[in-house]
Design brief:
Layout (H helix, E strand, L loop, with lengths): L1 H16 L24 E4 L5 E2 L6 E3 L9 E4 L7 E8 L10 E10 H4 L8 E4 L12 E12 L18 H6 L6 E14 L7
Parallel strand pairs: 3-9
Antiparallel strand pairs: 1-2, 1-4, 5-6, 5-8, 6-7, 8-9
Length: 200
């Protein structure tokens, strides 16, 4: 069963995602840096009781919604399989393969991911709330998506200075202890920042 499931995931990635990681164009499930809404069963729940899933993907949010890290649930996760959860700012001014990295958690067991429990997983970089440095109002797109990993990834922390222009898919290719597949599912949301002149 393990190998048959892995083969299905591999074929799905090769056919719909493409072999190269740098540029994601998926005409079937739809993931690109410009469109992070694809797949089913992923839910992002904030401390303000907002839920972002396939029903309300592309939601418009307030900065307060993400001042604290959300809970991430993937209801189709398989017991004892391993997953990666990543949250990024899909900055349109960066190159295609670059993101601002808000959060990256690896080695999450499927049974834990289904219930949003990351206590036994490895936080490779801690959660950092979305922000804007602009004085004027600004809308910024963010994405949360999930990768499948075949084996454990070393708990090597990502340095804080690496958040900026983080090449996530290049980072994946450097993980020599495992193969990764995906993104398997994702959601996208836009946070409207009022501008620094209106925060007081």
């Amino acid at each position: 069963m393990y190998w048959s499931f892995s083969l299905v995931l591999l074929l799905r990635c090769l056919v719909t995602q493409g072999i190269k990681y740098k540029v994601r164009v998926d005409e079937t499930t739809g993931y690109t840096k410009e469109n992070g809404c694809f797949g089913y069963g992923l839910a992002v729940k904030t401390h303000t009781n907002l839920t972002i899933d396939e029903v309300n993907c592309h939601a418009i949010c307030h900065p307060d919604d993400f001042q604290h890290k959300p809970k991430i649930f993937y209801y189709h996760a398989v017991d004892n399989y391993l997953y990666i959860v990543v949250m990024v700012n899909a900055n349109p001014y960066y190159y295609e393969e670059e993101y601002y990295l808000h959060w990256l958690v690896a080695n999450i067991k499927g049974q834990d991911l289904r219930v949003g429990n990351f206590s036994k997983a490895d936080r490779l970089i801690p959660y950092k709330a979305p922000f804007s440095k602009e004085k004027n109002p600004e809308s910024i797109r963010h994405q949360v998506f999930i990768m499948y990993q075949e084996y454990l990834i070393p708990n090597d922390k990502i340095k804080e200075k690496k958040r900026h222009k983080f090449k996530f898919f290049d980072w994946l290719s450097y993980q020599t202890t495992t193969e990764t597949m995906g993104p398997m599912v994702g959601v996208e949301f836009t946070i409207n920042f009022p501008g620094k002149n209106k925060l007081n």
